[in-house]
Amino acid sequence: MYSEKVIEHFSNPKNAGVIENADGIGEVGNPVCGDMMAFYIKVKNDKLADVKFKTFGCVAAIAVSSIVSEMAKGKTLKEAKSITKKAAAEALDGLPREKMHCSNLGAKALAEAIKDYEEKKYGKPKSATPQKKRKKPKRHITCSHCDAQNPITANFCMSCGKELNA
Amino acid sequence: MRRVYMDHAAATPVRREVIEAMLPYFDEHFGNPSTIYDMGSKIKQVIEEQRVKVAKLIGAKAEEIIFTSSGAEANNLAIKGSALAKQKKGNHIIISAIEHHSVLNSARFLERMDFEVTFLSVDEYGLVDPERLASAMRPETIIVSIMHANNEIGTIEPITELSAICREREVSFHTDAVATVGNIPVDVNGLGVDLLSLSGVSLGAPKGIGALYFRDNLRLMPLIHGGIQERGRRGGTENVPAIVGLGRAAEIAVKELPDKTNHIGELRDLLVAGIHERIEQVKYTGHPDKRLPGHASFCIQAIEGEALLFMLNQEGIYANTGSACASKALKTSPVLVAIGIPPDLAQGSIVFTLNSSNTREEVEYVLEKLPFAVERLRSFSPIWGKKTAA
């Protein structure tokens, strides 16, 4: 079911543990969902000087944590942020289909740890791609006849009584 | 490497005597039992002899046994065959929330065909409350199915009390006894059941053979339509070697049962005590006393079952788990949910099922390796040490 690489990383996980006074911590998942990963990073000169993890989960979750930590160590923050779930799964010579979400968790936990570090340092995340501004959900509908504001649920204008077109 | 197999609910090795009994029926006595020449009619006779042996194991009459391809087929035939035969009388079915998938999904299938199903909840030990069954009964109820013992938590249900409620109301009662037959004494009359499923898998017979007991006057719609094999209740040429295997295994089981029950009970107690002694924050799931003798099931805090099984596998230890990660659907075992185990604790599920071939040394080996594996997984678990166990 698992590749030799997965078994190797599960049996002897690299970088398992905690960094005291970590520069950034990323936690994803929760025990109720069945998987939980915590990544700890130490940053020096914009590079990941040390990466450690703790994982509650299956064979795949532990192997993914190990490979992601290994891939990230020594990389610049920018490089580390570009580690994808696909790259993690490929580095393990593949994962069973129902375990692919584990590789997502690993990449996400590392990204969260970097984000945590950047937030502490710069006050806001320095993301590679600028985050899109979230549109405010539409709450009102404007009457095309009298320009009055009506609740989104209304079928007829409360001001002029004409039918509203959503 | 050493191999310690403690997953006998999943499969048991076929005994040498059983294999030897089966062998002549592959080539020497290969005739079709439905033919009229002696090469066939003799085989027919052999099948009837096996029926007697299987019937004897559960205190039934030979003509009350139908051979099936598995315990799952026996469960399907019991639930769907009864429901379809009785649909003029009513359309209501009652099962427990912790039934095997072959019962659960048979009931769900019928639900889509205008039958109504009540899923009876269980208490924290997995026990079905007879009063709750009594109050779930309706005039339209046609069949009730409650398993004899649960394979995941080992709890033995109060079948005699439950079946009495059904008998009063003339409703058929089925029990899935796959986990009990061959592990504890099973008597259809003592239990008061109308239908009972058993499987070769847990008896030391080959895979691919099971049987359904049905009380003689009961109506049953066949699921496999064909010839008049099994008195018209299951078409298809009989799997003669497997039937002979089941018969021989049943014969051995009758003889060895008292010793086996004692032996696996002792080993189980040793295993349970040892685990409680060596590992902290472990929950023993299922009923502490009303349970299968060779069954030990736990939920271990802060670790995940698949990872644990894998580590044990590397030490040559074979067990089972109800963890969500170990299931293809990534869903927590419905049994653990039904007995109220929180999802995070359910992840740490591990189940050992013993057989007469297991030894004290094997239990000691598990007790040596298991705490180490648990400790290692906990050493990199982010939730270990953060909260206390249930």
> What is the CATH architecture assignment of the largest domain in chain A?
Alpha-Beta Complex
Average pLDDT confidence of chain B is: 95
Can you identify the CATH superfamily of the largest domain in chain B? Answer: Type I PLP-dependent aspartate aminotransferase-like (Major domain)
So what's the CATH class of the largest domain in chain A?
A: Alpha Beta
- Sheet-strand content of chain A, in percent, reads 15-25%
User: Given the helix and strand composition of chain B, which structural class is it?
Assistant: alpha/beta
How many distinct domains of chain B? 2
Distance between the termini of chain B: 36 Å
Helix content of chain A: 25-40%
CATH class bucket of the largest domain in chain B: Alpha Beta
Query: N-to-C terminal Cα separation of chain A, in Å?
Result: 52 Å
Query: Uncertain segments of chain B of ≥5 residues (pLDDT<50)?
Result: none
The sequence of SSEs of chain B as H and E is: EHHEHEHEHEHEHEEHEEHEHHEH
**Shape assignment of chain A:** elongated
- What is the number of domains of chain A? 2
Arithmetic mean of pLDDT of chain A: 86
Sheet of most strands of chain A: 3 strands, antiparallel
Q: Which residue ranges of chain A are poorly predicted, with pLDDT under 50 across at least 5 consecutive positions?
A: none
From the 3D structure, determine the CATH topology of the largest domain in chain B: Aspartate Aminotransferase, domain 2
Rg calculated over all Cα atoms of chain B:
22 Å
Q: How many helical elements of chain A?
A: 5
Outline the structure in words:
The complex is a heterodimer of chains A (166) and B (390). Chain A is of the alpha+beta class and 166 residues long. Chain A folds into two domains: 4-122, Sufe protein. Chain: A (Alpha-Beta Complex), CATH 3.90.1010.10; 135-166, no CATH class. Chain A has five helices and five strands. Chain A has helices at residues 4-11, 59-72, 77-81, 85-91, 100-122; strands at 24-30, 35-44, 47-56, 140-142, 149-151. In chain A, the strands form two sheets. A three-stranded antiparallel sheet of chain A has the order 1-2-3. In chain A, helix 1 (4-11) packs across helix 2 (59-72), helix 2 packs across helix 5 and helix 4 crosses helix 5 (100-122). The mean pLDDT of chain A is 86. With 390 residues, chain B is an alpha/beta fold. Chain B has two domains: 4-10 and 257-379, Aspartate Aminotransferase, domain 1 (Alpha-Beta Complex); 16-253, Type I PLP-dependent aspartate aminotransferase-like (Major domain) (Aspartate Aminotransferase, domain 2, 3-Layer(aba) Sandwich). Chain B has a seven-stranded mixed sheet, with helices on both faces. In chain B, strands 9-10-12 form a three-stranded antiparallel sheet. In chain B, strands 1-11 form a two-stranded parallel sheet. In chain B, helix 4 (101-111) links the parallel strand 3 (92-96) and strand 4. The longest helix of chain B has 39 residues, at 240-278. The model of chain B has no long low-confidence stretch (mean pLDDT 95). At the A-B interface, helix 1, strand 2, strand 3 and helix 2 of A face helix 9 of B.
